[in-house]
Write a structure and sequence with these properties.
- By secondary structure, the protein is of the alpha/beta class.
- The protein has a single domain, classed as Zn peptidases (Aminopeptidase, 3-Layer(aba) Sandwich).
- The protein is built from 7 helices and 12 strands.
- The strands form 3 sheets. It has an 8-stranded mixed sheet with strand order 1-2-4-3-7-12-10-11, sandwiched between helices.
- Helix 3 links the parallel strand 3 and strand 4.
- Helix 1 crosses helix 3 and helix 1 packs across helix 7.
- The model has no long low-confidence stretch (mean pLDDT about 95).
Length: about 290
């Protein structure tokens, strides 16, 4: 079975209403599906966290690197995607695409390890996270996990958030931006965007180049001060890691700045460009293997 077909098969399982409060059956089904798929490649750790007295779960799979024994232990690359949705949407692009790619990365790096250990995380409650009075992202599965890693003093080589990867529109004027970014980037929504803090500019350039090498147009944007000057750049699970001092990036098709189905009942499988999604997955795999 080829990569495109595997991604489509996973999307078929995940695309359904799965709000953690109002669509609990769909939410439970998808969480169990992700757990079963990740379990094919190793032990899945359940990170339970509390929000307003209720328990939720992140699913974590740790995969070893290929390094020879005796070398200094390398910090892991954490790759995450959220599996919850807002009420009333089947969430094909947001974020079944990210989860489908996450599951493919599990298969890939389990069967052929990368230079760095890989930690894969399916995060819950991304849609319900918020920014507290101190400007720190809280209330999501990613923020709870970032807090845990910080408490454990766990270093990361890089955190990558997979956030909406499958909507593509080559029509002129289909891509919008927060001002004044429209002066510097294309007006066609046919590229994948990489957004990171200033410390990872070399990684942004590297992964953008990998995308282009597999035929996917790519643009990258470094943002200072944890993205506060451009709030749209904080809208995913990388933001809690920025806030806690980690090197992190978001890989995205730019969500509401391109996709007219964002947070709507029309965010369905048939609106996706599976060739674009497949290319993004290939570019990520190639780029992660080649990270120094």
């Amino acid at each position: 079975m080829d990569l495109k077909q595997r991604l489509q098969d996973r999307l078929t399982e995940i695309v359904r209403d799965r709000d953690p409060f109002l669509s609990t059956a769909g939410h439970f089904f998808v969480r169990q599906y992700i757990h079963a798929e990740l379990s094919r490649w190793g032990k899945v750790d359940i990170h339970e966290f509390q929000v307003r007295g209720q328990s939720f779960e992140n699913l974590i799979l740790n995969l070893p690197c290929w390094q020879k024994s005796g070398k200094k232990e390398l910090p892991p690359i954490l790759i995450g995607a959220h599996y919850d949705t807002v009420p009333g949407t089947p969430g094909a692009d947001d974020n079944a695409t990210g989860v489908s790619v996450l599951l493919e990365l599990a298969k890939t790096f389990a069967t052929q390890p990368a230079k760095y250990p890989i930690q894969l995380a399916a995060f819950d409650l991304e849609e319900y996270g918020f920014t507290g009075k101190d400007g720190i992202a809280v209330g999501s599965g990613a923020s709870a996990y970032a807090d845990l890693l910080r408490q454990q003093q766990q270093p990361l080589r890089l955190m990558i958030s997979l956030e909406m990867l499958g909507y593509c529109d080559p029509t002129p004027g289909s891509q919008r931006y927060p001002s004044p970014l429209e002066r510097f980037y294309p007006n066609r929504g046919d590229f994948i965007a990489l957004i990171g803090n200033l410390s990872i500019v070399p990684d942004l350039i590297h992964l953008s180049r990998s995308m282009r090498q597999v035929g996917v147009p790519s643009e990258w944007l470094p943002v200072p001060n944890r993205g506060k000057s451009v709030p749209q750049t904080r809208l995913s699970d990388h933001a809690p890691f920025w806030d806690r001092g980690y090197r992190a990036m978001m890989v995205t098709d730019t969500a509401m700045l391109r996709n007219p189905h964002y947070h709507k009942p029309s965010d369905r499988l048939e609106t996706l460009n599976l060739d674009f999604l497949t290319g993004v997955c290939r570019g990520l795999i190639q780029g992660i293997y080649q990270l120094r």
